[in-house]
Amino acid sequence: MRFLNFVRVIYKYIAPYRWLAIFLCSSQIFEAAFESAMRISFKFIIDAAIVPQNYSLLVLILLLLGGGAIVFIVVGLLGDFLSAKLGILLLNNIRCSLFERIQSLSMEFFGRRSAGDIINCFQADAEKVENSFILGLPVVIFCLSNILFSVIFLFSLNWQLAVLSCIGLTFCAIAPANVARRATKEGYHLRQKEGHIASVIEENLLSQSVIKVFGLEKRVSKDFSAQLNDLKQVYVRAKFLSSLVQRIPSLAFVLVQLVILSLSAVMTYGNWISVGTLVSYQVLLLGLHSTILNFTWGLPYLIDGVTGLQRINDILAEIPEVQEAPGAIDLPHFQSDIYFDNVSFSYSKDRGGVKNLSLKIRQGDFAVFVGQSGAGKSTIVNLLTRFYDPDKGRILLDGVDLRDCTIRSLRSQIGLVSQEVILFNGSVRENIRMGYLEASDEEVKTAAKAAEIHDFILTLPQGYDTPVGDRGGQLSGGQRQRIALARALVRNPAILILDEATSALDPATEVEIMTTLERIAKKCTVIVITHKMAHALRADVMFVMDKGCLVVTG
Question: What are the beta bridge partners of residue 405?
Answer without folding.
Answer: 329
